[in-house]
Amino acid sequence: MTVLPRTRRAAMVSAVCALMATGTGLTGCSKEDPDAGTNGVGKLSATKIQSRTQAAARAADTVHLSGSVVSNGRTYKLDMQLAEDGGTGSVTSTGSTFRLLRVGEQLFLKADKDFWSHAHAEGGDGGEGGDGAGDSKAAEKLGGMFVKVPAEDPVYQRFSGFTDKDVLLDGLLTLHGELTKGERGERSGVRTIRITGDAGSGGTLDVSLEGTPYPLLLVRAGDAGTIRLSDWGKGVALEEPAEDEVVDYGQQLPSS
Fold first, then answer.
1. Structure confidence at residue 132 as a pLDDT band (50, 70, 90)
2. Is pTM, for the whole model, over 0.85?
């Protein structure tokens, strides 16, 4: 049996309906069901679609998240692979790119010496605020290495959230204002439906109409960034770096 592609099948149905209706008054034919072959969330209200997609995101083991986020007036470009027990990837902010790796509770940050010089200048080294020569020596030691960051350090507090799947998604996947259903579309060959907050000013979210109703594209409210979400449920390898690639932030740095 030959199965016609969806578009050809729809065209043939329309042609047959037109032929039957001509001169006969027959009205038994109707448009093809837009939800045929989908996961059915397109039939739900916008509020229920948001609830379904949030639940699907929480239940997934992994996701690849990329795009930009504006937080506290600063833009972060993200390319992160997230899992239940950690995450890995890169973050770019104010022209500086660094790598984040979290395995369990342990956070590693890899950046060049310029990043660490600025981190020290801003008090990101834990607040001791050594002299310029000490900061320069510290930055030289840290640059290009995986830095093992203690949980109580401001650097940990500032960046660990980028590696936490549930915290990050819970913060991102909430639209603001009254929710409505928008147009249907397609992303990378996958049919989608869009839900919007406050007619778009509260953000938009494209949700998959095929398989699990995962979120695929988020445009945040207030021009606060655009995030692409992909590779749901695919494996993410998380391993701590080799010992000779690591500087222990709390034990190996000189005090001055």
1. low
2. no
